[in-house]
## 1
Amino acid sequence: MSLVVVGSVALDTVTAPAGSVRDALGGSAVFFATAASLFCPVGVVGVVGDDFPEAGRRLLADRGVDLEGLETVKGGATFRWEGVYHDDLNQRDTISTELGVFETFEPKLPDSYKATQVAFLANIDPKLQLRVLDQLEAPRFVACDTMNLWIDIARDSVCEVLGRVDGVIINDQEAKQLTGLSDTVRAARAVAEMGPRVVAVKKGEHGCLLLADGAWFAGAALPLENVVDPTGAGDTFAGGFMGYLAGADVGDPAAFRRAVAYGTVLASFACEGFSLEGLVPVTREDVEARLAEYARLISLDG
Amino acid sequence: MSLVVVGSVALDTVTAPAGSVRDALGGSAVFFATAASLFCPVGVVGVVGDDFPEAGRRLLADRGVDLEGLETVKGGATFRWEGVYHDDLNQRDTISTELGVFETFEPKLPDSYKATQVAFLANIDPKLQLRVLDQLEAPRFVACDTMNLWIDIARDSVCEVLGRVDGVIINDQEAKQLTGLSDTVRAARAVAEMGPRVVAVKKGEHGCLLLADGAWFAGAALPLENVVDPTGAGDTFAGGFMGYLAGADVGDPAAFRRAVAYGTVLASFACEGFSLEGLVPVTREDVEARLAEYARLISLDG
């Protein structure tokens, strides 16, 4: 396997000004793998109940996503999340979170995943992230995400993970919470001091601030005029970022700038539809065309 | 005169985590002119009382800022503003605003200013901005700023100004308020539809989104690790932007991308000290060196 992701596989019910979907494919590992599979084969480590739809499994498998690591718990319920976005799509309310089988998730890597070169530990309990790290044999590049809950209740474990990974992809609020600093730039620097050589701080509509091997890259976001549903945009960003890196020289600091650009491009597609609707029709050619658009967007020469 | 600015000339009292200053030089026209004077001669149209310090006048004149348009009202008081920044420098409280002679400001352009090629109408009553436009003979490029107050109480006049200028440099909150739209991208598009061919939406620490002749440029901000005082950063941005344009081909859409870059660089210097302390020591060579740093910051190649 070129790339392995460990995270949630969920069914999302989302309402936004443009409409709504019920029990649609979601979860960090699903958005990540859908994006990353445009670059290379991806193995998913996660858990679902036997209520998880066969069509979802097929959609992923048809994209080259390997599901050997996706455990199915007989009689269990798949993780379900329901949220409502405001007119300002930066604001959302969570209506319900039903963890189901995800509550007792214990990630086990199939033997064929253990030699993966690149891995992403999406937002799960940092104690589980540590157990995944223990199962990886000789990865070239491992990155993680986390969330406010774990920083609140398991900060030491989050720090232990950060001391063992090569990269971290988190949002600005998480970086500030983790470091106790009120500005993003100093927070990113402080996160890097906790261990990872690559820190990507996601700022939503404001793009991504990257600190890679001590050098900054300020990656703007694409100016999106028709955002339908931002759910999963951050995980999709990570999928584009890590998917690109799986085929890149991670010894070259400039590779991480390109990774941010690919992450930004993939996230922009994800926002254009509910659930995976924005991502599924996208080809690698579409990605390259939008990457060229992105390069023009940030070019001083136009 | 190459470039004329019409705006406030003030004495600022500022408290921030790094310290404080009392009755220091400030005001939109002062920050603008201090930045723009690194590029070309700048004429200031404004008003002060006879309490305005001679040292302030000398500091500006020594930089090539022409003060023929700066009216002095005998027995009048210069505009004074006092503010306090929070630990998070994005938050500030205004303690007091004493308009003084600025309350009855009536901008009169000296004859030597009327043929200026480039002009900036900083944040003043839009009815006064219109009267300045009437005094300009054949400008190549005129841009304006505004603020929430005028959008609230004189929206029609703000729109009339926008119908007559070539460019507008406003912040994201103002763009949203003016258009009634909740996202910056659509708001920028809607502002452009009101008339100006160039719309620069300032987003503070998140940089500047530019829409110039229908093409987007997403200009990131420099990652500043030692912000002392952000007062005047927006006007300084405008000074760098317009100062660069005064010597550029405004028929070339790419010129506006460079203008954003220069504005960003100048604003970054302004934030590094109280009042004009960050800007005054800066040479044109310092500007070019930081511009090169900015170009690397946003480059996909590192």
## 2
Amino acid sequence: MKNIPHRIYLTEDQIPRQWYNLRADMKQLPDPMINPATGKPAVEADLYPVFCEKLAHQEMDNETRFVDIPEEILEFYKMYRPSPLIRAYNLEKALDTPAKIYYKFEGNNTSGSHKLNSAVAQAYYAKEQGLTSLTTETGAGQWGTALAEACSFFGLPLTVYMVKVSYEQKPFRKAVIQTFGADVIPSPSNTTEAGRKILAENPETGGSLGCAISEAVEKAVTTPGCRYVLGSVLNQVLLHQSVIGLESMTAMEMIDEYPDIIIGCAGGGSNLGGLIAPFMRDKLTGKADPRIIAVEPASCPSFTRGRYAYDFCDTAKITPMAKMYTLGSGFMPSPNHAGGLRYHGMSPVLSKLYHDGYMEAVSVEQTRVFEAAVLFAKQETILPAPESAHAIRTAIDEALRCRETGEAKTILFGLTGTGYFDMTAYSAYLEKRMVDHIPSDEELQKGFDSLPKIPGIQE
Amino acid sequence: MKNIPHRIYLTEDQIPRQWYNLRADMKQLPDPMINPATGKPAVEADLYPVFCEKLAHQEMDNETRFVDIPEEILEFYKMYRPSPLIRAYNLEKALDTPAKIYYKFEGNNTSGSHKLNSAVAQAYYAKEQGLTSLTTETGAGQWGTALAEACSFFGLPLTVYMVKVSYEQKPFRKAVIQTFGADVIPSPSNTTEAGRKILAENPETGGSLGCAISEAVEKAVTTPGCRYVLGSVLNQVLLHQSVIGLESMTAMEMIDEYPDIIIGCAGGGSNLGGLIAPFMRDKLTGKADPRIIAVEPASCPSFTRGRYAYDFCDTAKITPMAKMYTLGSGFMPSPNHAGGLRYHGMSPVLSKLYHDGYMEAVSVEQTRVFEAAVLFAKQETILPAPESAHAIRTAIDEALRCRETGEAKTILFGLTGTGYFDMTAYSAYLEKRMVDHIPSDEELQKGFDSLPKIPGIQE
């Protein structure tokens, strides 16, 4: 048997020079976005007020299979890529499993997560178009940090609307974003109509991701030379994140491996969509048939308990509507929920693939997630982000199943980031103050009641 | 010209299999440690109550040039080593310098610093000897985290005395250490004589590194099967940290480079001693003559303004006395000082080499350090620990000097870790609340007054 090292690094030359667009190989495409102003399918130009032109094009382009990565983005990637594929020898031993567990670690950069892969692309295209500023939202803060790094590098001013409860509870996250020169505003704020409206209704609100998106979009469309960027859900983001999967596949080829099971955490789908991209291609083209598993929190179960329906991406209902698995833009996860992945919807591409049976989804409760996180940290010495720990949980569960059956399956999961800024949640778990919350059918119904009605399409 | 990638990774096979013991090549050795009980040079057995036997041997062994790294430690190293050597292309461009800047990045592991290199070695030897627990102290928290990771891996209970002011100001750092299963006690505490004495004299004290060392040593020597471990200053620590320099040298050989200038931050000397080890060997043996620069804070200037004298390593004066550059164990850096590197003494090996003219030292003020840190973060996208940023400051200064002279010097510096837990200091800098403090001669004199008197040796 070939001696497989713990960390499999590609060389700089092996960083992909093209992103892979999964849509080009989908037998059935996701339903088109709907422009809420017209009730008709959105066209590329509808997106120009919000997104820069190249990104709007990538958003709508379902045909180009491979997209060249501009040299400037490649140069940036070289600062922190290729990321390692790691064989979890110690975790395997601790679980006494015949399974071989690999993880692609995207946390080895200052943003602490995979988010940088798309942030640099979006900042670059904005700069190339001559835009003069960007806006975005951030919840847990990984996306805000990543975009601040990218904007700082390309010299683009950035305003980050940070969900107020995060802004207050995570002053260090805020400080990192500020270190990279971005302006951080707690959301809801009085800098936008959307924010003022929410504050008037509920002055004490801690904010939400959907509300922060509404503010960031409004600010972008009302500021000359400004556009909005988003770190997940979008097709363009999945395109950029395909570097994760492409590198993973190359690394596995180098050691003569192919995953039987691929596992990723799923909030908006950015990491999962990127990790699985080339493997899903094999599945769509009949070349291979790995199991693909999305893992989501039991307290925000868009795949496993959501509706496949048209919905808004934000609470102010100003973005285009997308067909996706959603809990409704009015759904709010329990305040007990600690581990990120709290977005109400899901990538339309992943939603379609799930709907058509190409992938599975499981939901896990957060105490089991943190149990997995601590076990992983002790064995592999990497402190995972709570989001990433959802994938760890399911990878462990699958490896334990292999122990029962005696099967030496090859498991690949995405370790999206590190948990340095999530110690409040770790402490709650360690001190047994963490509780699980599974929303009741009635709670979910409230979210579904917020789904839009679109004459002739969704009544 | 050879095309040098941004990140130069060695393969797993290229992780050094032996540590390099710099003392074996020193023409004049450091003066021996003095046992405070006898006033005579300490022998190996004098150290057994405090350190485990193999480590006591490494501490005193001035002859063995290369020490085999046990397989178990190598296996652990493979989880996070080799660490990358990175060419700072973007920083060079921003500085418009002809200099070539390389940095060895040791922050890509969960402890966030190079400290893990020695932590795993010390935990392993303790376990091998059949010890049942360990104690240590931690200030900023990097060492405590690293040792907690290592002890967790080898199943050794660990008690960390954490300087009280850090314990209170860095709850997240504490939580990381606890996640790895260690017991964290704010120091001074009522768990030791040393702690109770200090609390009786000054109930409101925020503690100090020297006091935490006293508590950890006392706890170790009064608990059966327990020993004390220290993350810096010691000869054994420099030995373990030589992996940094050995990997750096191999990586530079691969790209046909050799540093003209080697720069490291210096608190107790663990990183600097490890980084320079094989290059200092070249210098001692006449093979090469790089400039070697230690960088320390202006507010804790042991090399540049300290005395070369025998001193205790702790404030309770129970450890052996070492000849080193020191500000006196009674010296306390200004409370304004944010950036670590606050130990009163310095590695005896480095002290001797500095005293004999083999290396230089500079001190830098903290606002200039943070200015360099922010510039570096924006260009290289890694948020450095304040400690590491001392080396960045001097590397930038040297690169700017090259711009003046037009010399294309090759600069290598050690980037010891990341600054995720130091955002309070970053915020103070960004909000212009950070002030510099250069101790007056009178302040320094108070520290020197605490130096021990040893009949016949130091009057």
